[in-house]
Amino acid sequence: MAKYFDVHPDNPQPRTIGSVVDSIRSGALVAYPTDSCFALGCQVGNRDGMARIRSIRNLDDRHHFTLVCRNFAQLSRFVRLDNDVFRAVKAATPGSYTFILPATKEVPRQLMHPKKKTVGVRIPDHVVTQALLDELGEPLLSSTLLLPGEDEPMTQGWEIKERLDHVVDAVVDSGDCGTEPTTVVDFSGGDVEIVRRGAGDTSRFE
């Protein structure tokens, strides 16, 4: 059964955040809130967690996992950015965007797109997510919690606990999340490509 953590949306309890992060460091796969919708997350390098995300979401090996980072300094360790891309990404973070970029050697090979050698990165604008990332001290390996065959993500922590009780290890609930996933912008091919229109405003990239 998954542990259930009730977290205050504006003032996350340090003890509760610490307990969630201890679980993540021990190999847990958690469902947690972001500024777009709920996500599945585990520690980078957690192969079992990554395999369970693939299984829950029915993903193939071409799916871009996302490294959810606490700040731009952390993000820039994992992806390569030229000056123009740096400015564009910096201006849009934190926010409801995922950026596809060429991965650096810091990214484990199994997280990269097998042919493009790219990875997704984002910096969420969400108090609870930022508290988790601050405590963890490293990115979370993540994917949107959108189940196969469903058009919208679940928005209630209790519903996630009920439906995914035996496939995730913890659910972090801080109230309703939105139903729109992040806007995905691919900078890896030279030109800007909007792969998915979501919660983030696309006009700045068009």
From TrEMBL:
<dbReference type="Pfam" id="PF01300">
    <property type="entry name" value="Sua5_yciO_yrdC"/>
</dbReference>
<protein>
    <submittedName>
        <fullName>L-threonylcarbamoyladenylate synthase</fullName>
    </submittedName>
</protein>
<dbReference type="InterPro" id="IPR017945">
    <property type="entry name" value="DHBP_synth_RibB-like_a/b_dom"/>
</dbReference>
<dbReference type="InterPro" id="IPR006070">
    <property type="entry name" value="Sua5-like_dom"/>
</dbReference>
<feature type="domain" description="YrdC-like">
    <location>
        <begin position="14"/>
        <end position="200"/>
    </location>
</feature>
<dbReference type="InterPro" id="IPR052532">
    <property type="entry name" value="SUA5_domain"/>
</dbReference>
